[in-house]
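User: My collaborator and I are trying to settle a disagreement about how two of our proteins should look. Neither of us wants to argue from intuition anymore, so we agreed to look at predicted structures for both before our next call. Could you fold the first one, then the second, and keep them clearly separated?

Assistant: That sounds like a sensible way to settle it. I'll keep them separate. The first protein:
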Amino acid sequence: MSELGTFVGLGFRHIVNREALDHILFLLALAAVYRWEDWRDALWVVTAFTVGHSITLGLAVTDALVLPTPVIEFLIPLTILVTGVENIAARHRAAGRWHGRYRAGFTAIFGLVHGAGFANYLRSLIADSIVTPLFGFNLGVELGQVIVLALAAVLLAGLDQLLSARRTGGSVMAYRWRVVGVSAAVVLVAARMAVERRPW
């Protein structure tokens, strides 16, 4: 296998394995508020996350930015927790002053944190030139995220149908129950992670 293929595989596996639970939870927290018809909004948010983590990944791997691992590992579950709480609190996101557009901004900032987490792993694998490993790893991460988000979309749509069938007040209420339920579960897991990873 080529060097590029090796690092694409490493990036992909870094997202789709049990050790990547924190990144998967963050993607689930991001996806929890979207339905099929919201795909444009979801695309903006995912793109913002990609831009954020790509910037930090590049800076950290080249040692232009050095961040302590314990702090990064603590901040990652905090980004998940904040995203889950925002999901629950912002009930009328589209009707608000910013029409939900702020979400891409804070997701880009959180992407910076997650990129530093990716970099700590990638830095240990690079021996010489960083261009191919960095590009390949980032591409693999993106492919992994697409798979995770596609599975999340299918599961969330199924959950919407299940809740609607149980007559929980129609599709709008089913959607709200889904957002709150998924987000609350994510918040609980993220809070436990944050406590376990606290750097003090």
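The second protein, kept apart from the first:
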Amino acid sequence: MAGSLAGMLIQSRLSERMTSIIFQGVGLMTLTIGISMAIQSQNLLVAVISVVLGAILGQWIDIDRHLRKLTERWQHRGTPHSDNSATNDSSSSRTTRFTEGFITASMLFCTGSMAILGAIEDGSGETPRLLLTKSIMDAVASIALGASFGIAVLFSAIPVLIYQGTLTLLAAILTHYMSEEMMANLTSVGGILLMGLGINILEIKQINVTNMLPALLIVVILSYFW
């Protein structure tokens, strides 16, 4: 909300160099948090196997492609149609522009691995470092979006609250049925995936972390039987 309001005020005056250095700092922070989480595993072999099997399963399902299709579908619904009557109707044009901005911002802030990993960390009772890091990234993005779409980006805070709040509550419930070893292994796998996100943000190499998300489920199962 603060980012979108700032974007409406500055109207795209944030320079590309400033945006770049902010994201570099966020990338380093993400990488550091990922490393600190990854070393918490009590059984590194379980974490490694979980990541490998999760990557294979996620790539087979191609989670990333399905999420992209969903995002494109929602964005398409908010895209103005080339209709003469819609062009002449300023009220309809403003409504369409609002819808486009709302959907674009909501999908940007709600999709991604950090939202899921952050909710798990928060729900488990840990300090929500990932959500705080994600909030910095979302703030920068919302400034740019707010300058382009206006108040529509402000309202995207509602689906973000519902989506991330629900994930956090579910994670909080599930943690009551997990042992300390399960939590440690889950944290470790989450850290490994987070390291991949940090590498992506720093543009060192593009790693498809989204397709590795099944590792978070596999590590819990392996920890139970191993």
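Some points you might bring to the call about the second protein. The mean pLDDT is 79. Residues 2-225 form one domain.
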